[in-house]
Design brief:
10 helices
């Protein structure tokens, strides 16, 4: 009998896991970690609870594996694709555009990000950061260091993440605020705004 995944860290998805991980993602995206039970997952996936526990020791292990799978598979192309030649700010804008395009097309990923940000479990958050989000952060930090030498790279990278994610997380509300225009949601327009804000502050566009 195959052994279960080790208790430390996020279980590595292998061929037998992918179907379970993909099938349970809509549940976690809709209700978060606390709102989903292993029985809910088993019913949604179409397996018995015992089959889930065979592969994952508990709900947290399944959740970490599923979120890790979602981010690593969906962000893989964004991280792997070569950036176009050009000066650092242009390269950063190209990267931000790719991420905005991905989020605009993937509402499930948007919801997962929102639940991850709302999670109050520090140990679970640390595992996700170290195993899942760090490659994204490193890419942004490297581009930030080139675009803005001498800047606080950590704050710069976190600001990029915040400016990308918040418009998607808040758009159900923002749409009802005065001055809203649908073009504001276009990935290219959002990316230009993010880079312009970081580079020039709140100065009006030339």
């Amino acid at each position: 009998m195959a052994s279960r995944p080790a208790r430390a860290g996020i279980p590595k998805p292998v061929a037998g896991y992918e179907r379970i991980l993909e099938a349970c993602l809509p549940l976690f995206a809709q209700s978060g970690f606390a709102g989903v039970s292993m029985r809910d997952v088993a019913q949604g996936v179409g397996v018995t609870p015992a089959a889930l526990y065979y592969h994952f020791r508990d709900k947290e292990a399944l959740y970490l594996a599923a979120v890790g799978h979602a981010f690593t598979t969906r962000l893989a192309s964004v991280l792997a694709e070569q950036l176009p030649p050009g000066e650092p700010w242009s390269q950063l804008e190209a990267f931000v555009t790719r991420v905005c395009t991905l989020l605009a097309a993937d509402e499930e990923l948007q919801r997962l990000i929102q639940w991850v940000l709302l999670d109050t479990d520090a140990a679970r958050a640390q595992q996700l950061v170290e195993a899942v989000f760090q490659p994204f952060y490193v890419t942004v930090a490297e581009l930030a260091g080139q675009a803005c030498p001498g800047c606080d790279v950590h704050r710069f990278a976190v600001s990029v993440f915040s400016l990308i994610v918040f418009p998607f997380e808040s758009r159900q509300v923002v749409r009802f605020l005065p001055g809203y225009q649908p073009p504001h949601e276009h990935p290219e327009a959002l990316a230009r705004h993010v880079i312009g804000l970081l580079r020039h502050g709140l100065q009006p566009a030339a």
